[in-house]
Design a protein that fits this description.
The protein is built from 5 helices and 2 strands, in the order ββααααα. Helix 1 packs antiparallel against helix 4, helix 3 (105-118) packs parallel to helix 5 and helix 4 runs antiparallel to helix 5 (149-173). The protein has 181 residues and is mostly helical.
Length: 181
Protein backbone atom coordinates (compact mmCIF):
# COMPACT_ATOMS: atom_id res chain seq x y z
CA UNK A 1 0.00 0.00 0.00
CA UNK A 2 1.26 3.45 -0.93
CA UNK A 3 2.03 5.72 2.07
CA UNK A 4 -0.26 8.68 2.81
CA UNK A 5 2.51 11.07 1.78
CA UNK A 6 6.00 10.44 0.46
CA UNK A 7 8.91 12.87 0.21
CA UNK A 8 10.66 12.49 -3.14
CA UNK A 9 14.06 14.15 -3.14
CA UNK A 10 15.57 14.90 -6.51
CA UNK A 11 19.32 15.17 -6.62
CA UNK A 12 21.15 18.23 -7.83
CA UNK A 13 19.88 21.36 -9.52
CA UNK A 14 17.94 19.41 -12.17
CA UNK A 15 16.25 17.08 -9.68
CA UNK A 16 12.64 17.53 -8.55
CA UNK A 17 11.91 17.54 -4.82
CA UNK A 18 8.27 17.24 -3.80
CA UNK A 19 5.74 15.65 -1.51
CA UNK A 20 3.67 13.02 -3.31
CA UNK A 21 0.24 12.60 -1.72
CA UNK A 22 -1.73 9.37 -2.08
CA UNK A 23 -5.15 11.07 -2.16
CA UNK A 24 -4.13 14.46 -3.58
CA UNK A 25 -2.30 13.98 -6.90
CA UNK A 26 -3.20 17.25 -8.69
CA UNK A 27 -4.27 20.84 -8.07
CA UNK A 28 -7.63 20.88 -6.33
CA UNK A 29 -9.77 23.16 -4.20
CA UNK A 30 -7.47 22.37 -1.27
CA UNK A 31 -4.44 23.58 -3.25
CA UNK A 32 -6.23 26.87 -3.92
CA UNK A 33 -7.27 27.28 -0.28
CA UNK A 34 -3.72 26.69 1.00
CA UNK A 35 -2.23 29.10 -1.55
CA UNK A 36 -4.87 31.73 -0.73
CA UNK A 37 -4.23 31.38 3.01
CA UNK A 38 -0.49 31.78 2.44
CA UNK A 39 -0.90 34.83 0.20
CA UNK A 40 -3.48 36.38 2.54
CA UNK A 41 -1.33 35.86 5.63
CA UNK A 42 1.80 37.12 3.84
CA UNK A 43 -0.12 40.16 2.59
CA UNK A 44 -1.35 40.98 6.09
CA UNK A 45 2.14 40.62 7.58
CA UNK A 46 3.59 42.87 4.87
CA UNK A 47 0.83 45.45 5.29
CA UNK A 48 1.50 45.60 9.03
CA UNK A 49 5.28 45.92 8.53
CA UNK A 50 5.27 48.40 5.64
CA UNK A 51 5.79 52.08 6.38
CA UNK A 52 2.55 54.03 6.46
CA UNK A 53 1.54 55.77 3.24
CA UNK A 54 1.68 59.03 5.22
CA UNK A 55 5.43 58.58 5.55
CA UNK A 56 5.94 58.42 1.77
CA UNK A 57 5.93 61.11 -0.89
CA UNK A 58 3.12 60.94 -3.45
CA UNK A 59 5.33 59.40 -6.16
CA UNK A 60 6.36 56.52 -3.88
CA UNK A 61 2.73 55.77 -2.92
CA UNK A 62 1.79 55.67 -6.61
CA UNK A 63 4.78 53.51 -7.57
CA UNK A 64 4.07 50.90 -4.92
CA UNK A 65 0.36 50.68 -5.85
CA UNK A 66 1.21 50.41 -9.56
CA UNK A 67 3.76 47.69 -8.76
CA UNK A 68 1.16 45.75 -6.77
CA UNK A 69 -1.33 46.12 -9.62
CA UNK A 70 1.20 44.82 -12.15
CA UNK A 71 1.93 41.81 -9.93
CA UNK A 72 -1.76 40.95 -9.51
CA UNK A 73 -2.32 41.33 -13.27
CA UNK A 74 0.67 39.09 -14.14
CA UNK A 75 -0.54 36.36 -11.77
CA UNK A 76 -4.13 36.55 -13.02
CA UNK A 77 -3.08 36.36 -16.69
CA UNK A 78 -0.72 33.44 -16.03
CA UNK A 79 -3.31 31.45 -14.08
CA UNK A 80 -5.86 32.10 -16.83
CA UNK A 81 -3.42 30.91 -19.48
CA UNK A 82 -2.57 27.80 -17.43
CA UNK A 83 -6.28 26.98 -17.19
CA UNK A 84 -6.80 27.39 -20.95
CA UNK A 85 -4.21 27.54 -23.74
CA UNK A 86 -1.15 26.52 -21.68
CA UNK A 87 -2.90 23.68 -19.85
CA UNK A 88 -0.72 20.58 -19.58
CA UNK A 89 -1.97 17.05 -19.91
CA UNK A 90 -2.51 15.04 -16.71
CA UNK A 91 0.77 13.64 -15.41
CA UNK A 92 2.81 16.02 -17.60
CA UNK A 93 5.02 18.72 -16.06
CA UNK A 94 4.62 22.28 -17.34
CA UNK A 95 7.50 23.05 -19.73
CA UNK A 96 8.84 25.94 -17.63
CA UNK A 97 9.18 23.71 -14.56
CA UNK A 98 12.14 21.88 -16.11
CA UNK A 99 14.12 25.07 -16.76
CA UNK A 100 16.13 27.21 -14.36
CA UNK A 101 14.00 30.21 -15.35
CA UNK A 102 10.37 29.96 -16.42
CA UNK A 103 9.52 33.01 -18.56
CA UNK A 104 6.25 33.61 -16.70
CA UNK A 105 6.77 32.41 -13.14
CA UNK A 106 10.34 33.67 -12.80
CA UNK A 107 9.09 37.08 -13.92
CA UNK A 108 6.33 36.86 -11.31
CA UNK A 109 8.82 35.91 -8.58
CA UNK A 110 11.02 38.87 -9.58
CA UNK A 111 8.01 41.20 -9.59
CA UNK A 112 7.01 39.91 -6.16
CA UNK A 113 10.45 40.89 -4.87
CA UNK A 114 10.11 44.29 -6.53
CA UNK A 115 6.75 44.87 -4.85
CA UNK A 116 8.12 43.81 -1.46
CA UNK A 117 10.99 46.25 -2.01
CA UNK A 118 8.64 49.06 -3.04
CA UNK A 119 6.74 48.52 0.21
CA UNK A 120 10.07 48.48 2.14
CA UNK A 121 9.42 45.10 3.73
CA UNK A 122 12.44 44.03 5.85
CA UNK A 123 14.74 41.54 4.12
CA UNK A 124 14.33 38.91 6.84
CA UNK A 125 10.58 38.81 6.11
CA UNK A 126 11.22 38.72 2.35
CA UNK A 127 13.68 35.84 2.78
CA UNK A 128 11.27 33.88 4.96
CA UNK A 129 8.27 34.46 2.69
CA UNK A 130 10.11 33.52 -0.50
CA UNK A 131 11.57 30.36 1.01
CA UNK A 132 8.25 29.38 2.60
CA UNK A 133 6.52 29.85 -0.77
CA UNK A 134 8.97 27.39 -2.31
CA UNK A 135 8.19 24.94 0.52
CA UNK A 136 4.51 25.41 -0.35
CA UNK A 137 5.32 24.62 -3.98
CA UNK A 138 7.06 21.41 -2.92
CA UNK A 139 4.16 20.44 -0.65
CA UNK A 140 1.01 21.44 -2.54
CA UNK A 141 0.09 19.77 -5.85
CA UNK A 142 -0.41 22.14 -8.75
CA UNK A 143 1.69 25.06 -7.53
CA UNK A 144 5.16 24.34 -8.86
CA UNK A 145 5.48 20.84 -7.43
CA UNK A 146 7.17 19.68 -10.66
CA UNK A 147 9.82 22.43 -10.69
CA UNK A 148 13.46 21.45 -10.69
CA UNK A 149 15.50 22.42 -7.63
CA UNK A 150 17.53 24.92 -9.65
CA UNK A 151 14.34 26.73 -10.64
CA UNK A 152 13.34 27.02 -6.99
CA UNK A 153 16.71 28.52 -6.02
CA UNK A 154 16.68 30.85 -9.02
CA UNK A 155 13.15 32.07 -8.14
CA UNK A 156 14.29 32.91 -4.60
CA UNK A 157 17.37 34.78 -5.86
CA UNK A 158 15.29 36.68 -8.41
CA UNK A 159 12.83 37.77 -5.71
CA UNK A 160 15.66 38.89 -3.43
CA UNK A 161 17.31 40.83 -6.29
CA UNK A 162 13.99 42.51 -7.17
CA UNK A 163 13.56 43.45 -3.50
CA UNK A 164 17.06 44.95 -3.28
CA UNK A 165 16.78 47.04 -6.46
CA UNK A 166 13.28 48.39 -5.79
CA UNK A 167 13.94 48.88 -2.08
CA UNK A 168 17.08 50.89 -2.77
CA UNK A 169 15.22 53.11 -5.23
CA UNK A 170 12.47 53.84 -2.71
CA UNK A 171 14.90 54.25 0.19
CA UNK A 172 17.17 56.59 -1.75
CA UNK A 173 14.20 58.64 -2.96
CA UNK A 174 12.67 59.02 0.51
CA UNK A 175 13.87 59.50 4.07
CA UNK A 176 13.13 55.87 4.91
CA UNK A 177 15.64 53.08 5.42
CA UNK A 178 15.76 49.74 3.64
CA UNK A 179 15.69 47.43 6.66
CA UNK A 180 17.30 44.03 6.87
CA UNK A 181 15.42 43.07 10.04
Amino acid sequence: MQPFVELQVGGGLRGVTKLKWREWPTRSWLSWVIAALFVGTAGLVCYLLAPSADELPEWARIVRLVGLGVLVLLIAVRLLLEATVSKTLPGEAPPGDRKFADPWWSTIHTTTGVVLGLWLIPFLVVALLTMLWEVLEISVPGFGDEEINGNRMFDILLAWTGWLVAGLIIALGTDLALRLI
